[in-house]
Structure formats: C-alpha cells, structure tokens
Amino acid sequence: MLTVQLPPDLEERLQKLAQATGRSAAFYVTQAIELHLDDIEDLSIAERRLADIRAGRSETIPLEQVLTHRRRR
Question: I need a labelling partner for 23 at 20 to 30 A (CA). Which of 32, 41, 68, 71 fits?
Fold first, then answer.
C-alpha cells in the first residue's frame, strides 16, 4: 500500500476525471505510473552509463562499428 499526497489542483483534476468516466482515481494514478515509470527507469540507466563513461569505467562503441556488425548478420 502506498499513500501519495497530491497538490490540490492535481487531486481535483483527478477526481473530476474519475467521476466523469466512472473509473476510480486509483485506476488513473496506476495508469500514469505505469506509463511513465519505464521512461524514468531508462533515464536513470542512461545517467549511470554516462557517469561510467565519463569516469573511464566504461567504453563506447562507434556507431559505424555497430552498423557494420549488424549488416554482417
């Protein structure tokens, strides 16, 4: 169970949407989280990878090398 405190204006919009559609506010909160959680996780991974590259803990592969390898398959 998770409790989330929303700003009043956002909560009002959410309640109006729920009433207008006959769905619960929890349904829309879950939908919003599902839609955006993947993007947030991807951003986090990208930021860690960039930090590793900048710190010399990881190397990059030139795009041309990736494309050449892909064509051989």
Answer: 41
**All structural domains of the chain with their residue ranges:** 8-72
Mean pLDDT of the chain: 93
Query: How far is residue 9's CA from residue 15's CA, in Å, rounded to a whole number?
Result: 10
pTM higher than the cut 0.70: no
Assign 4 to helix, strand or coil.
coil
25 to 10, 38, 39: CA distances (angstroms): 11, 21, 22
Distance of CA 68 to the CA centre of its chain: 31
**Run of H or E including 42:** helix 25-54
